[in-house]
Amino acid sequence: MLSYELLLVYLVAIITLIATPGPVVALVIKNALQNPQNNFKVAFFTICGTNLGSLLLISISIAVILGTTRISSFAISLLSLLGSCFIFYLGFSSLFALFKASKATNMEQSNNFTNQTKLTPRKCFIQGLFLSLSNPKDILFFIAFFPQFMGITDSMALSIILLAFLWILLDFGLLLALSYFAQKAKLERFQRLITLFSDLVLCGIGIMGIIYGISHLML
To answer: Is 137 among the domain residues?
Structure first.
């Protein structure tokens, strides 16, 4: 028996959570706009990486909910600190590359730089995967979030499978739709500004995460 009321609430909740601007949305749009000639493939592989990361975190969360796995708060805090360092590195390295590009004095230098920094599907996939895994505190979020909707069916196993499947399906679909909208809205002309904003967001989130992680580990 499927609870359609609970299903509707769950769908609205995850659509709101996924569509809210954050580091994953920023990375997907930034990568797509940086490669206008191959934007769909770049966005697709970035999203595949983020979804695999989400699936791994969800799997760990489900294992904790079912009591088959335990994770210490210290381990999560330490992994969160390392993840924040990665987020900062991702934003800072892109900012540095943007700075080098602005220093190019002629078209040939710009073209050479573009070729050197061209995003490959493999690189986009790895970026998306590690960005998604960079905040293991999402495990705690899923642990707190999923039990609220376990009554979506009469079977706990079926409910878990359905909740996880809908999350991944909507996560993939919404991110792909956002990247498609960014391309169709012809935001390429604002590519430098969007890239700069996205990189600053990543750096800011990374710095805040590092400060929080260090302070939490020192308690």
So the answer is: yes
Q: What's the one-letter identity of residue 8?
A: L
For 69, the domain range is 4-101+119-218
Whether 61 and 67 have beta carbons less than 8 Å apart is answered as no
Q: Is residue 62 included in any domain, yes or no?
A: yes
- Count of C-beta atoms within a 10 Å radius of residue 117: 15
Q: 41 exposed, middle or buried (CB, 10 Å; 0-12, 13-18, 19+)? A: middle
- 5 or 73: which leads in pLDDT: 5
Domain count, the chain: 1
Q: Which residue has the higher pLDDT, 188 or 198?
A: 198
- In whole angstroms, what is the distance from residue 118 CA to residue 113 CA? 8
The answer to whether the CB of 98 falls within 8 A of the CB of 197 is no
Q: How far apart are CA 195 and CA 94, in angstroms?
A: 8
Give the mean pLDDT of the chain: 80
Q: What is the rounded average pLDDT of the residues 42-50?
A: 91
- Cα–chain-centroid distance for residue 137? 13
- The answer to whether position 107 is within a domain reads no
Q: How far apart are CA 207 and CA 84, in angstroms?
A: 7
